[in-house]
Amino acid sequence: IYFKDFGLRNNLCISKDFSHLFENLVLSELFKFKEEFFYNKYFNFYSQISKIAYISSPTLDIDLIKLRAKKILPKALELGIFHVIFITLSSEDNFFEQGVKFEVISFDKFSLGF
């Protein structure tokens, strides 16, 4: 369950799972776009209009993110997504695979970029 006020989720839940809280925080930032977002088991959130997918990976390092990118590449191409953004706590990188841009950015740059 996602909340527009991510602090509400944290207050209502007994278990404090940081990765879920971080994912909800990312969604709160995406609300600024005022467009419809979808999710599936490959992407935390994606937009069919802007063809961008967002994956919150607060603690993964660059090598693990690149492995995950290769695994989700076929699904990105199937959905017509050509830009995948991994949001982390501090890592940053850019790389391309078969015409899909994978961008790894820190949350502070992600949130300030809007």
Provide structural commentary:
- It is a single chain.
- The chain is an alpha/beta fold and 114 residues long.
- It is 39% helix and 23% strand.
- It has a five-stranded mixed β-sheet with strand order 1-2-3-5-4.
- Helix 1 runs antiparallel to helix 2.
- The two termini are 24 Å apart.
- The model has no long low-confidence stretch (mean pLDDT 84).
- It comes from Campylobacter jejuni.
- This is ATP-binding protein.
Low-confidence stretches: none
Strand order of the largest sheet: 1-2-3-5-4
**E-strand count:** 5
Main sheet attributes: strand count, strand direction, barrel closure: 5 strands, mixed
Q: Residue share in helices?
A: 25-40%
Helix run count: 4
**What shape does the CA trace take?**
globular
Query: Radius of gyration, Cα only, in angstroms?
Result: 14 Å
User: Roughly how many Å apart are the termini?
Assistant: 24 Å
SSE succession: HHEEHEEEH
Assess the beta-strand content as a share of residues.
15-25%
Instruction: Determine the mean pLDDT.
Output: 84
Number of domains: 1
Structural class by sheet pairing and helices: alpha/beta
